[in-house]
Design goal:
Elements: H1 2-20, H2 32-62, H3 65-89, E1 98-99, E2 108-112, E3 120-123, H4 124-136, H5 142-163, E4 167-169, H6 185-197, E5 201-204, E6 215-216, E7 220-223, E8 227-230, E9 236-238, H7 239-245, H8 248-251, E10 270-272, E11 278-280, E12 289-290, H9 291-299, H10 304-311, E13 316-319, E14 339-340, H11 345-351, H12 356-370, H13 375-385, H14 387-393, E15 395-396, E16 433-435, E17 446-448, H15 453-463, E18 482-484, E19 495-498, E20 501-509, E21 514-520, E22 527-533, E23 543-545, H16 548-551
Parallel strand pairs: 1-13, 2-4, 6-12, 14-15
Antiparallel strand pairs: 2-3, 5-13, 7-8, 8-9, 10-11, 16-17, 18-23, 19-20, 19-23, 20-21, 21-22
Helix pairs in contact: 4-5, 4-6, 5-6, 5-10, 12-13, 13-14
C-alpha cells in the first residue's frame, strides 16, 4: 500500500511538472520587477505553509485518535463502495435468461437415509419444501426460504440429471430432508408461498447448464474482535451479529475446509455420531452459499434474487416451467399481496422517478428484440405488463368490466387523447379512480380503471405489432381455431376461453399439469398471472385457441411500430 501511495505521489509530481512546462497562449512575459514581487509572495507562502504544517502535526500528536478516525472513515467508505459494486453489478434483480429445458425433472422423488423419516417417495414439491424445512427451517423467514428453494431445486435437478434417477439421500451427504408434516402451520404457509413464488426457478451457468448450487452452515477463515471473514465470496459479518445468531459450534470452530496443523482445535469442536464415529462439528466445505451468511444478508434488506446473485456470481436465473424460448422473466404467479395500481399510471411513475415514456420505450425495445408481429413479441408484452410491472414496482393493473385499453367516452378523466385503437404503449390512465354506480358526495365508493379480460387480450396483441383486426370481445373462445382443452395442448401466446372470459397462456408446467395464464381477472384481483389446469376440465366449454394462423399472417402485422 505504501509503495502504491509513493507511486501516486511521483505520478502527481510528474503531472504537475508536465503541466507547468506547457505554454500558455497569449500570456505576456513577466518583467523583472513583477518577478521579484512574485518571489517575495512565494517566500511568504512557504512560511505560511510551514506554520500550518507544524500546527497540524502538533494537533495530531496531542490527539492521536484523529488518525484512527480518518482511517476508519476511509475503510468504511471503501467497504460501502465494494458492497455497492457487488449488489449493483452482480445483482440479477428479477432478470432471467429465460427457459431451461430440464432433462430429468422427476415428478416423484425417492428419499432415503433421512434422520427425520423412513425411506419415502414424495412429490417434487414436497421434497423441495422438505429440504428447505430441514436445512433452514429454524430461521422461519420467507425470503430465506425463497433463496434456498431455488438453490435446492437447482441442486436436486442437477443430481437427477447426472444420475439419471429420481432418488437422493436425505442427509448431509446430499441435502437433509424433513417431511413438511413436521412443520408448524406458519412454516407450512411460508414454504408454500416460497415454492409458488419461485416455482420452476433455477440457477444456470450462462452456458445452458445447471449450476452446482452448494451451501453450508457457517464456514469462516479468519475472525477477530470485530468481524468474521467467510469462505464464500470473502463475506464479512460483524462479530456482534454472529454472537447473537450463530450457534457456538459454528462460531468457535473454524471451518474444516481450511484447517491446518497451526490451527488450534478445541475438544468441543468434535462430536460423536450415533454409530460411535467421531466427527468435526463445523465440517463445512466453504463453497456456494453460507446459510447464516444468507440470514445476515436478508436481515440487511437484500432480496432472494440479490442473495443468489451474490453467492453464485456469474450465474443466471432460468425457469424450467417458463415460456419456452420466448420468455425473459422467471415465471411466477402474481403475489396475493401485490396491490392494484390506485392512481393514474402516469402519476405513479412520476412519483417513482420515471415516466410513461420510459416505460413504453422499454416495452417497445422488448418487442423489437423478440420480433415485431411474432408470437414471441406477444409473450414479451404479457411479461412486461404482469411479471415485470410487479417485480419492478410491486403493483398490478386494475380490472374494469367493459374496459378497453382506453377510456370509455363517458368517463370524465385526464388524458383523453389516449385512443385505444390507435395508441401504443401503456395506458397512462390505468389506475384512475372513477365514481362507481353508487358514488356518494364525491367521497366514494370508486372503481379503479383498467382493461377487462378481452380488452387486455386486444391491448397485448396490438402492442406486439399486430393491427386491430384482433378485436376486443370474448368471442375468441368460439373462434374456428378453438379446440377443446381436453384434446389440444396450447403454447405460450395461445388463448384459453369460455363464455364470458378469455386469457393468455404464458407458460407451461408439465410436471403439475398446469398452464400459467395471464388475464384481467376481475375487480378484486385485476390483471394477474395464475395457473389453470391442463387437459380434461370440469367446464366442458373451455377451449384453447390456437393462434398460430393469426400470428403468422403477414397482413395482420403493422408496418409503423413505434421506434421507442
Amino acid at each position: 500500500m505504501e509503495e502504491e501511495l509513493k507511486r501516486e505521489e511521483i505520478d502527481a509530481e510528474e503531472n504537475l511538472e508536465e503541466s507547468s512546462s506547457v505554454d500558455t497562449p497569449n500570456e505576456e512575459e513577466a518583467t523583472p520587477e513583477e518577478s521579484s514581487n512574485v518571489n517575495a509572495l512565494g517566500a511568504l507562502g512557504d512560511v505560511a505553509k510551514e506554520k500550518a504544517k507544524t500546527a497540524v502535526l502538533a494537533f495530531i500528536s496531542k490527539n492521536p485518535w484523529v488518525i484512527g478516525a480518518i482511517v476508519g472513515i476511509v475503510f468504511l467508505f471503501i467497504m460501502f463502495m465494494y458492497v455497492s459494486m457487488i449488489f449493483s453489478d452482480g445483482s440479477w434483480g428479477n432478470s432471467s435468461s429465460g427457459y431451461y429445458a430440464s432433462k430429468n425433472t422427476c415428478n416423484d422423488v425417492s428419499v432415503f437415509s433421512s434422520e427425520y423419516t423412513s425411506n419415502v417417495t414424495v412429490s417434487l414439491e414436497e421434497y423441495l419444501q422438505g429440504v428447505v424445512l430441514a436445512e433452514v427451517g429454524i430461521f422461519n423467514d420467507e425470503e430465506i426460504f425463497k433463496v434456498f428453494m431455488v438453490a435446492v431445486r437447482t441442486y436436486s435437478l442437477r443430481h437427477f440429471e447426472s444420475s439419471g434417477a429420481c432418488s437422493i439421500a436425505g442427509n448431509a451427504t446430499k441435502q437433509a430432508y424433513r417431511p413438511t408434516s413436521q412443520a408448524t402451520s406458519e412454516q407450512k404457509e411460508m414454504l408454500r408461498r416460497a415454492y409458488n413464488e419461485t416455482m420452476g426457478t433455477v440457477v444456470t451457468d450462462g452456458n445452458g447448464n445447471l449450476l452446482l448450487t452448494q451451501y453450508d452452515a457457517f464456514c469462516w477463515n479468519i475472525r477477530n474482535a470485530t468481524s468474521y471473514n467467510m469462505a464464500q465470496q470473502g463475506q464479512v459479518i460483524p462479530t456482534s451479529w454472529v454472537d447473537l445468531n450463530v450457534p457456538n459450534q459454528h462460531r468457535n470452530c473454524k471451518c474444516s475446509k481450511n484447517l491446518s496443523e497451526e490451527d488450534i482445535v478445541e475438544d468441543f469442536c468434535y462430536g460423536t455420531s450415533s454409530s460411535g464415529s467421531k466427527f468435526y462439528v463445523n465440517g463445512g466445505h466453504g463453497n456456494g452459499m453460507s446459510q447464516y451468511g444468507v440470514k445476515y444478508l436478508v436481515e440487511t434488506g437484500e432480496t432472494w434474487e440479490n442473495v443468489l446473485a451474490y453467492y453464485y456470481n456469474g450465474g443466471e436465473l432460468s425457469n424450467i416451467y417458463g415460456s419456452g424460448e420466448f420468455g425473459k422473466y422467471p415465471l411466477t404467479v402474481t403475489n396475493s399481496d401485490t396491490e392494484k395500481l390506485n392512481e393514474p399510471l402516469e402519476t405513479f411513475l412520476l412519483k417513482n422517478g420515471t415516466s410513461i415514456e420510459a416505460l413504453n420505450s422499454s416495452l417497445y425495445a422488448s418487442v423489437r428484440e423478440a420480433g415485431i408481429g411474432t408470437r414471441a413479441a406477444v409473450v414479451r408484452v404479457i411479461e412486461e405488463s404482469t411479471l415485470a410491472i410487479e417485480q419492478k414496482y410491486k403493483i398490478r393493473f386494475p380490472y374494469t368490466y367493459g374496459g378497453h385499453h382506453g377510456y370509455p367516452e363517458d368517463y370524465s378523466v385526464p388524458n383523453q387523447d389516449y385512443n385505444y385503437k390507435t395508441s401504443y404503449g401503456f395506458n397512462p390512465n390505468w389506475g384512475y379512480r372513477f365514481p362507481s354506480a353508487v358514488w356518494v358526495d364525491g367521497t366514494g365508493p370508486y372503481e379503479l380503471y383498467g382493461p377487462d379480460c378481452s380488452g387486455y387480450i386486444a391491448w397485448v396483441i396490438y402492442n406486439a405489432g399486430y393491427n386491430y383486426s384482433v378485436g376486443d370481445s370474448t368471442s375468441w373462445w368460439r373462434n374456428a381455431n378453438a379446440k377443446s382443452i381436453a384434446d389440444f395442448r396450447g403454447q405460450p401466446g395461445d388463448l384459453i376461453g369460455w363464455n364470458g372470459h378469455v386469457m393468455f397462456i404464458l407458460g407451461i408446467n408439465d410436471q403439475e399439469g398446469l398452464y400459467y395464464v395471464a388475464h384481467a381477472s376481475d375487480g378484486a384481483t385485476g390483471v394477474k398471472v395464475s395457473t389453470y389446469k391442463m387437459g380434461a376440465n370440469t367446464n366442458e366449454t373451455v377451449r384453447v385457441v390456437d393462434m398460430t394462423s393469426y400470428y403468422e399472417n403477414a397482413s395482420n402485422v403493422v408496418d409503423d411500430y413505434p421506434l421507442g
